[in-house]
Amino acid sequence: MGSPSSFCGVTLVDSPVVRLAFEFAKENLDEVSFRHVYRSWIFGAILASKIPAFAKINFEVHAISTLLHDLAWDHLSSFSTPDKRFEVDGANAARKFLEREAPQFDNRQLQLVWDSIALHATPSIAQHKEPEVALCTMGITVDFLGSRFPGGLITDDEYNAVVKELPSVDFKESVKRKMCGLCANKPETTYDNFVRDFGERFVVGYSARVINSVDILLGADWRRGPVE
């Protein structure tokens, strides 16, 4: 089954590469994760229909980015590496998918997809990037917040209609398991992002070792204490 052209009354972009991304996500994600990325795509489309700044974005880029944004959030994924944040692993996997399946994508489109995925869990930066990048993060956030998403842009009826078709059963517990898996198995990739919070709360023996930027930039022997 290819990707739909509409869902719960919302028009979704439909093209060969989006259909390929839809199937790629379905093949490479567990059911809970697939429903999450699918819902996030729909929520982004709902937001875009209400926000004029998103009216003319590249909706193929948005669809592909959202559908493929969590390819590596499970440390057991074939796309996961030992030394990179899960968002970067996912962005790299999506770029390789497009280089293979969509040679018509130019460098800017590839970069937009990469940025959308790499920054999807860092909204404080993503919101200041291109609208495709911002919308990817916003749709994903709606799947966590529902109608509590700021601005009243998602109604209870809209949220419930999507969740009725794509149930969020076991979603929060699944996220917890995956984040804790990252903390336990590749902790060095979790110290400067939100994943650390799961490690500190739920993973026995996890140490929130913060990378000291001063030591990196100036050296560990740099003068300590406040500047006078």
UniProtKB/TrEMBL annotation:
This protein's name: HD domain-containing protein
Question: Which organism is this protein's natural source?
Answer: Talaromyces rugulosus
The top of its lineage is: Eukaryota, Fungi, Dikarya, Ascomycota, Pezizomycotina
